[in-house]
Amino acid sequence: MLTKTYLPLMLLFLEPLWAVSTSAQTPAPAPAAPSAAPAAPTPPPDSSGKDKPKKHGFRLPKIGVDYDTFLPSSGKTHSRFGSSWGGIGIGIGRPDQPSGKGRIAFDFSTQYRKSGDHHAFIAPIGVSYRRAFSPDAVKQKSTFTPYYGFTVNLVPVDLRSVEDNVHSGFRLTYGGSALVGTTIGASGFVEARYREVAKVKGFDLSGIKLSVGVRF
Question: How far apart are CA 203 and CA 72, in angstroms?
Answer without folding.
Answer: 10
